[in-house]
Amino acid sequence: MKSKVVFVYLILLVFVYTVRAQNVEYDPLLDPAVEVLGSPLHNSNSESLWYPGQLSAHLQQKRMKESAERCVNVGYPGKFYAPVYKTSFRKTFNLSSETRLEWISTGKTKAFINGQEKEVVSNSLLLPKGRNNILFEVSTEDDLPSIKVTLNGVVSVEEWSASLDGTYWNRAETSNVFGTEGRRPLDDPEVDVVIKPVSIVPVRNSTVEKDKIIIEKNGYVLIDFFHLEMGKVSFTVKGNGRLTAYVGESPEETLNENTKAFEQVAIEPYMLTGNETVITLPEMALRYVKLATDGDCELSDIRFTAKMWPVDFLMTFDCDDERMNNIWKASVATLHTSTHGFYLDGIKRDYLPWSMDAVLSTFGGDYVFGDRQTSLNSLSVALLPYNPTRDDIGIPDYPLHALIGFKQHLMRYGDFNTILAYRDRMEQLLQFYETLQDENGFIGKMGVWGFVPGWATTQGPDNKGTPAYAQMMLYLNYKIGAEFAEKWGDKKMVRYCRKQAETLKASILKHFWNEEKGMFINGYKQNGELDEGISHHAQYWAILSGLFPEERYDHLFETLPDIPDYKSNVSYEKGYEFLAYSKAGKVSQIWDFLFTVFGDWLEQGHTRFPENFSYLKSKDEQLVFYNRPYGLSLCHGANGVPGIVAVLNGIAGFRQSDSQPNHYTIRPDLIHLKWANIEFPVKEGKIRLKLTKEGTNTIEIPAGCQIDFVNKDGKKTTLWKAGVYDL
Q: N or C: which terminus of the chain has fewer CB atoms within 10 Å of its end residue's CB?
């Protein structure tokens, strides 16, 4: 009987998915069948001020509390930037007339004018004409110290300084998403959307009529909302007996009733009394809901009210291959689902920001959404606490993602003041890593979890050893550190970082390059033995850091697919790897991989990409993670990035010059496509492409940048002025 029920369900699911797949929208904000309640509040005018990185620190604490209340299995190694509960803010004004100064803060506030503390009645003072040095001290008990300041009713956010100790002053941070429109900075600006079921399967002792569900004794139904999101399911019900709800990301998880296998706290049953009532389930991450009763009941008006982070869809893609379009749409939706103030890990399993995942996600989110503060929050999480020690390390390579992400942030938005605001923590991080290096300049054999390049490590490296890829990341960090230090004018730091990078480069090539294989080996094992195995991690980091010889690219990409388990065991680091593929010009190989693995996942009926793919395993085994039957997160933001990279850096062939950040290259590769339309943001505005296999390509560019358009024959056309060009 059980097999018959599952078969019937799968037939119905395939039918529903096939109907939707003809013109599917994977993101709820883009789905015409989804009702958006109100207007999303985003990209408003900045209002509140806080110390750089402290919004991230406090918001992380908020997410940790939410996670602890809902998620069952949460492990979080390492220490992070600690939230502080007192901050000072200062600015000097030269006023041409008497001016009314007013403020709203998140805590108790002392106001000082020209060094004198003022008695304040209603957070308002009258400033005299002339020079006024203003200082606020904001103290909170369990909130981010922040302040909104107005002069004659006009909000002031420019050129404020902030300090945590009254001695070291930094540029105050503000945002056009957080702390705007009268909201406090830690108030989530999310918008509610109402998602209706795409299918309701009467599995046992139940029937589905046009506008209601009837469940008889010991019966149940399985409801599919198609979209996997965070939110609350509600419905109207009338009947008797005990009604129990189960939720999950997959049918298998949702139909399971063994509470020991749950990844989220079990929902308490509801006792029905015969009266009609509205039930709203607790907030959960879900796509599916099972409703079961030991009595008889009638249900109607079933809806899933999901909370969505407000975003602009700045990047778009459309082509003549629907497989590509669906991979693109599902990639964007995957990243968006995991966007909640950070680019989060699995929303069902822990709802927390993890350093590698969060930083890698910015390589997609910065172009698709352009949410600068969410990216900054994610980058800040990757930086260690002030004055870090070895005891602060959980995963030793995770903080190495931070500077790589800050470099991406600078290239995308062009705001060096943001880099300066995090200078102190970046310098401390680089100097701290020097204390961990051995005689070869390598870091290894440390951390609670050891090194974690991703989960696809059946071919190594040893997580408790000295992996080659981590040394390449450290080398790249010192290169970026030298570049940043040169911009902020610290010649001593420039010399230090360059020397560290040059020494490390020589050691990496000496110890880890295998000339015969034409690739980099894994590194050293925990016992000190050389690990001459080959995995993909060292290869793509070597390309991204500029260590891999370009003349050996072809050999590398011919060999990579032959690595055992290369496609059958796929993890969330693929975004980085596909950046390396793009840099090497291997666009067709990217899409071959995406069609085989990511495309297969969509063909199975999933609507988001998971943390780990093992698509050759059985259906049930694909859901297993951490040795738990449903431990895999079926929505993992970082695995939305590979599809975005495949379009932006692959098909569009987008590159940005390191030395001249306003100089871009577009080298399209349509592979098998007849046409593709792509638009994406750069710091100067938007680039719009209409590409065709045969005929004229059209490009629209903004002012303030130079574009080199390189066609399939290698012919380069340089464009300087804003406009639309046919090439």
A: N
Q: What is the pTM of this model?
A: 0.95
Q: Are the C-beta atoms of residues 654 and 648 closer than 8 Å to each other?
A: yes
Q: Is the pLDDT of residue 12 over 80?
A: no
DSSP SS3 for 694: coil
Instruction: Break the chain down into helix, strand, coil percent, rounded to 5.
Output: 30, 30, 40
For CA atoms 671, 674, 679, 682, give the dihedral sign.
positive
Neighbours of 98 (CB within 10 A): 11
| Count of CA atoms in the C-beta half-sphere (13 A) of 539 | 27
Six-digit token string for 136: 């606020």
User: How do residues 498-526 score in pLDDT, each as one tens digit?
Assistant: 999 999 999 999 999 999 999 999 999 99
Residue (of 645, 670, 655, 671) closest to 706 by Cα position: 655
Mean pLDDT, residues 330-344 taken together: 98
Please tell me the distance from the alpha carbon of residue 25 to that of residue 329, in angstroms, as a whole number. 7
Q: How far is CA 491 from CA 243, 482, 659, in A?
A: 69, 9, 18
Closest to 231 measured CA to CA, from 335, 332, 351, 143? 351
| pLDDT for the residue numbered 14 | 45
Question: Distance between CA 568 and CA 560 in Å, rounded?
Answer: 13
Question: Nearest Cα to 397, choosing from 348, 457, 344?
Answer: 457
Nearest of 213, 399, 210 to residue 297 by alpha carbon:
213
For CA atoms 393, 394, 400, 406, the dihedral sign is negative
3-state DSSP assignment of residue 406? helix
**Which residues face 290 on adjacent strands?**
222, 246
What the block records as the tokens of 423 is 């200078």
Q: In terms of Cα–Cα distance, which of 23, 26, 13, 18 is closest to 643?
A: 26
Please answer whether residues 473 and 407 qualify as being in contact, where contact means their C-beta atoms are separated by less than 8 angstroms.
no
- The partner residues of 112 in beta bridges, in order of sequence, read 117, 135
The three state secondary structure string of 214-244 is EEEEEEEEEEEEEEEEEEEEEEEEEEEEEEE
Alpha-carbon gap, residue 697 to 718, rounded angstroms: 14
Residue 598 DSSP class: I
